[in-house]
Design brief:
64% helix, 321 residues, MetI-like fold
Length: 321
């Protein structure tokens, strides 16, 4: 007979039969784990990206703290002496200071010049990428959402822009505008905005077919709110990856322009300008004037590329689990 007493309801359920293994249950997902936390943990799983991030953070910190950690102010003509020019690494200059990386033809300490030049290169690269990303992302998302003639016009301009080599366009613009940090930033923005427009437009074409965009349209929300509050934020992952890689490209392009003599002025030398200053002394044995700024430039570009490659892997939705 079936036991209908209240005590029967309190009996534990019978376990698995003897000799039968207990069924394993999958572990419950961690509570409070956000998408950002998963991306951060996934990023730090790449050893190369971590090394690149450490090097990049150290480079930025050294550039920002250059006025306090540099042995010399290379912009202060009162601290420069022609008697200290082209000293090899390890020699003393000025008031008994050690030139660990030597001095250049103007008597500037190379370590100090590299730290200050790194400030110019990073500032030009970061500012140009930021402005170009804002312009390109806005045009790309507007073209994808509007469609029709607006999209055709914007994308034809993008195709025309990308059909010319970036170095050629920058050279023409600087030949018209002249030398200067602000002129270099403008030239880099002109040659870079098309990359962001094409990237964001491709992502926006996919996102605008999602249900949340249709829901926003059904609610009769303003187009500007749909585009910039709902559509554009969901296009940020590929934009962040492109922007990270383009910082390295912008620094390399600025260094190339400065090396050719059409970039930043001599009074505000970047890493490219420092390399150009010592290029004529390579065959005479004064290798340190160009070599050390070149090594610093390569290290920074490689570090940025390592971080950008890892961000591409982490933010790629096809690789997300």
């Amino acid at each position: 007979m079936t036991d209908l007493s209240p005590h029967a309801a309190m009996k534990p359920a019978p376990g698995p039969a003897a000799g039968m293994p207990a069924q394993a249950h999958p572990p419950a997902p961690e509570k409070g784990e956000s998408l950002l936390r998963r991306h951060v943990s996934s990023f730090f799983e790449g050893k190369g990206a971590v090394v690149g991030l450490v090097v990049l953070v150290a480079s930025v910190a050294a550039a920002l703290l250059a006025p306090w950690i540099a042995p010399q102010d290379p912009y202060d003509l009162a601290t420069l002496s022609i008697m200290d020019n082209m000293l090899p690494p390890g020699e003393t200059f000025g008031m008994g200071q050690t030139a660990y990386l030597g001095t250049d033809d103007q008597g500037r300490d190379m370590l100090s010049a590299i730290l200050y030049g790194l400030r110019v290169s990073l500032a030009v690269g970061a500012s140009s990428v930021l402005i170009a990303a804002v312009i390109g992302a806005s045009l790309g998302v507007l073209a994808a959402y509007a469609g029709g003639r607006i999209e055709s016009f914007v994308m034809r301009v993008v195709d025309l822009q990308l059909s010319f080599p970036a170095i050629l366009v920058a050279l023409v613009l600087l030949a018209v505008f002249g030398r200067g940090v602000d002129k270099v930033v403008i030239a880099l923005v002109v040659v870079q905005w098309a990359y962001y427009a094409r990237t964001v437009r491709g992502s926006a074409l996919v996102e605008k077919r999602r249900e949340y965009i249709e829901a926003a349209r059904c609610l009769a929300l303003p187009r500007s709110r749909i585009v910039f509050r709902h559509l554009l934020p969901n296009c940020l992952p590929p934009l962040i990856v492109v922007a990270t890689v383009q910082i390295a490209n912008a620094i390399a392009l600025e260094s190339t322009l400065s090396f050719l003599g059409v970039g930043v002025p001599v009074t505000e030398p970047s890493l490219g300008m420092l390399i150009a200053n010592g290029y004529g002394y390579l065959l005479s044995g004064k290798y340190w004037i160009s070599t050390f700024p070149g090594v610093a430039l390569v290290i920074v570009i490689v570090a940025i590329n390592l971080v950008g490659d890892r961000l591409r892997d982490v933010l790629n939705p096809r690789l997300a689990k």
